[in-house]
C-alpha cells in the first residue's frame, strides 16, 4: 500500500472532487459511483485520520478483525466493515443502534451489539480475542479508561485508533490539557505511535494511533 | 486454550445449532416453538465472561459450526436478532415509562386542584378567612393558617392535597429528566413536559414520528373537546402545541401560522429522535428564525398596543 490506505479504501472522484471511498451499500446519503461510496471525513473521525494521512496500520481484507466502540448509527463502522473482515460494533444507545441494525443487515461480517464499552465483560463472550484494531469514538467522559478496559481484545501487534473529544471530558478545560491527561492515562497500557488534532474536520478532537505496550 | 471453563464461556456453548432454524423467521411472528431462537438471543444478551477467546476457532473445534465462515454467518444472525430484541425492548420500556409518568403527573395535578377546591369550600364554612387553592392547603397543613374553629378532617384533607401536589412536582422532575434522553430534539424544541405530553397523546415516540405535522398541530384538541363537553373547559380550537411559547407569544391573527411552523419542526425533531437519536441544535435556530419572521408581520401593522406576547394570560 504505497498510499498508506488499507486495501478496499481508495480515492475516487465524486462530482469532480477526489474523495476516500469504500465499496458497500450506502448508509448516510453519501454520494456513490458504481459500487463505491464516498467516505465523508467531516462525519467520521477515522475518515479524518485517513485524510490527514495518519498511519493507522491496517491492511484491509477479510482476515482483518476490528472491534468498534461507539458505533452509533453506523456511519464509520459501515466503511470499516466494507474494507475489513469480521467487525464487532458496540453501541449503548438504543435509538442509533436501530439504524446500526439496518447498516449491518447488508454486511454479513458486521456484528452489532447493544452494550456498554465500559463493561467489556458483557461482550467478551461474543467478541473474539486478538483483534487487529480497536476503533474507538465514544465521546463520553472517561475515554482513556474505555481504551484501557478494552485492551484485552487487542492483539499484541494490533492498533488502537482512538478519537478523543476534549469537550466530553471537560467543557471548561483547554483541550490541550485534556489531551495531555488522556495520553498519560493511555500510556499505562499503550505505546502511542502518533497523535494529530483533527481540527480541520472535527473541532477539539485528537486522533491517536497506539499499540499495546510490549511487556 | 484447553481450559474447559474458558471454552464454555463462549456465547454458543449451550446452543443447539438447530436453534438457528427458528432465528430466520422470528420476524414472521408465528407460533414459537422450542426453536424460536430465544436461547440464542438470551445467550448473546445475558452471557458474560472476563476474558475473550478465539471464539471462531473454538466453535469449529466444538462442532458448533463447520468452519469459521459458517460460524460468522451464525454470529451475524445471532447478534442481529439479539440486538433487535434489546433495542425494541429498551425503546418500548423508555417510552412506556415516560407516558405513564406524564399521565400520572397530570392526574396528580388535576386531583390536587379538585381536592383543593373541595377543601376551600369546606374550610369556608368554618372560617370566613379561608383561602383557596393548593397554596391554602399548604398553609393549613403547615399550621400557618389556623381555622377559626379547629377541624381535624379539614386539616387532614389539606395534608392529602399537599402530598398530591408534591407527588406531581416529583413526577414533573422525572419527566423533565427523562424526556431529553428519550427524545432529545423534541424535548429541546417543545420543552420536556410538552414533548412528553405529545408522546403520551400519540401513544409513543414512534407514533409522533409517523404522524403528519398537521396531526401534531391538533393533537390534544380532541381531549380538550371532551373536557369542554363535560363542562370543564372552554371550547377548544387548538391542540396541545398552543401552549408552546412560540405560539402563545404570537399575535392571535398569526397564531395559526406559528402553530403550523412549530408543528412542522416538532415533527422533524420527533423523526430525528426516533430514527437516529442524533442531536440537531440547528432545528431550534431554524424555528426561532421562522417565528421571528411570522411575528414581524404583526409587529409592523400593529400599533394598537396589544402586540404579540402580551395578549395571553
Ligand atoms: C460521536 S458518536 C460516534 C459516531 C460514530 N463513531 C461514527 O463515526 O459513525 C459517539 C457514540 O458513542 C456512544 N457511546 C457513548 N458512550 C458509550 C459507551 N460507554 N459504550 C458504548 N457506546 C457509547 C454514544 O451513544 C454515541 O452513539
Task: Characterise the protein shown here.
The complex is a heterodimer of chains A (215) and B (313). With 215 residues, chain A is α/β, with parallel strands linked by helices. Helix content of chain A is 24%, strand content 30%. Chain A contains six helices and eleven strands. Chain A has helices at 45-51, 75-83, 94-105, 143-149, 166-169, 175-186, and strands at residues 10-14, 17-23, 32-33, 36-38, 66-69, 87-91, 110-114, 131-136, 154-165, 190-197, 205-212. The radius of gyration of chain A is 16 Å and the shape is globular. Chain B has three domains: 33-92, no CATH class; 94-179; 183-299, Serum Albumin, Chain A, Domain 1 (Orthogonal Bundle), CATH 1.10.246. Helices cover 67% and strands 0% of the residues of chain B. Chain B has 15 helices and no strands. Chain B has helices at residues 4-7, 19-24, 38-46, 55-61, 68-126, 133-142, 152-182, 184-190, 192-202, 205-210, 213-218, 221-229, 245-248, 255-275, 282-300. The termini of chain B are far apart. Chains A and B meet through helix 3 and strand 7 of A and helix 5 and helix 14 of B. The structure holds S-adenosylmethionine (SAM). Residues 44-45, 70-72, 75-76, 90-93, 96, 116-118, 137-140 of chain A line the site of S-adenosylmethionine.
